[in-house]
């Protein structure tokens, strides 16, 4: 995976979108997630208990490095090409505006979904209306 600066990431993302349109056989996957300051998962160690149960206990090493302020990790993938960038909290607004403009410019190949028209209230046939009015008037006559 290639880690790029924010502007270089957006330029490469535009190239990925154009390649997927030209070839017609690719989908660009974009993932956004919270970045906690580590590039890899913490290493785990497996220790066996000396008792006869044979259960294993996993422990994780905690990194003592201070984590930076809140950041966002953004990854993009097209076939076997992967790129990523880190967006610090101070630059999120500027990056989000540029990212939205890139997405709006490249989402022209989406297919429209067919909407089912809601059925209007069914009106009963005219002869039922006549019977209803006739029976209604008969009920009125019998009540008095």
Automatic annotation (TrEMBL):
Compartment(s) where it occurs, according to its Swiss-Prot or TrEMBL record: Cytoplasm
InterPro entries: Signal_recog_particle_SRP14, Signal_recog_particle_SRP9/14
Gene Ontology annotations for the cellular component aspect, listed alphabetically: signal recognition particle, endoplasmic reticulum targeting
SUPFAM superfamilies: Signal recognition particle alu RNA binding heterodimer, SRP9/14
Pfam family, one: SRP14
Major place of residence: cytoplasm
GO molecular function: 7S RNA binding; endoplasmic reticulum signal peptide binding
Record has 4Fe-4S as a keyword: no
Positions of the UniProt region annotated as Disordered: 43-66
Function: Component of the signal recognition particle (SRP) complex, a ribonucleoprotein complex that mediates the cotranslational targeting of secretory and membrane proteins to the endoplasmic reticulum (ER). SRP9 together with SRP14 and the Alu portion of the SRP RNA, constitutes the elongation arrest domain of SRP. The complex of SRP9 and SRP14 is required for SRP RNA binding.
UniProt similarity note: Belongs to the SRP14 family.
Assembly information from the UniProt record: Heterodimer with SRP9; binds RNA as heterodimer. Component of a signal recognition particle (SRP) complex that consists of a 7SL RNA molecule of 300 nucleotides and six protein subunits: SRP72, SRP68, SRP54, SRP19, SRP14 and SRP9.
Name the UniProt record assigns to this protein: Signal recognition particle 14 kDa protein
Organism per entry: Orchesella cincta
């Amino acid at each position: 995976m290639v880690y790029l600066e924010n502007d270089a990431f957006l330029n490469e993302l535009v190239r990925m979108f154009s390649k997927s349109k030209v070839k017609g056989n690719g989908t660009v996957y974009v993932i956004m997630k919270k970045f906690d300051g580590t590039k890899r998962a913490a290493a785990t160690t497996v220790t066996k208990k000396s008792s006869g149960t044979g259960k294993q206990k996993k422990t994780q090493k905690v990194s003592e490095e201070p984590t930076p302020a809140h950041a966002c990790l953004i990854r993009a993938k097209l076939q076997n090409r992967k790129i990523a960038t880190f967006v610090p909290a101070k630059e999120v607004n500027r990056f989000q505006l540029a990212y939205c403009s890139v997405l709006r410019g490249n989402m022209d190949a989406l297919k429209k979904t067919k909407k089912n028209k809601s059925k209007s209230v069914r009106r009963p046939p005219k002869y039922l209306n006549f019977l209803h009015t006739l029976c209604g008037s008969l009920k009125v006559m019998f009540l008095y």
